[in-house]
Design goal:
This protein has one helix and four strands, in the order αββββ. 25% of the residues lie in helices and 49% in strands.
Length: 69
């Protein structure tokens, strides 16, 4: 989904996401679920907890000022 630079940024910030619950990522380019490339100014990643509120179910992302390229 993310380009190489964004994957690297996410990898470097992964511990922070798990500890603090969220992290801001720099802008970049990624692939939409429809297979189209998008660019964005900033992304926010946060952990989503399972029903027991102790287990991490997945990570969610929100993209700021995105557009198809």
């Amino acid at each position: 989904m993310f380009d190489k630079a964004c994957r690297k940024a996410l990898f470097l910030e992964f511990a922070k996401v798990m500890q603090e619950g969220y992290v801001y990522l720099p802008g970049g380019i990624c692939m939409s679920t429809m297979g189209r490339r998008i660019s964005y100014e900033q992304a926010i990643a946060w952990k989503v907890l399972a029903g027991d509120e102790t287990t991490v179910h997945c990570l969610a992302f929100s993209f700021v000022n995105w557009l198809f390229v």
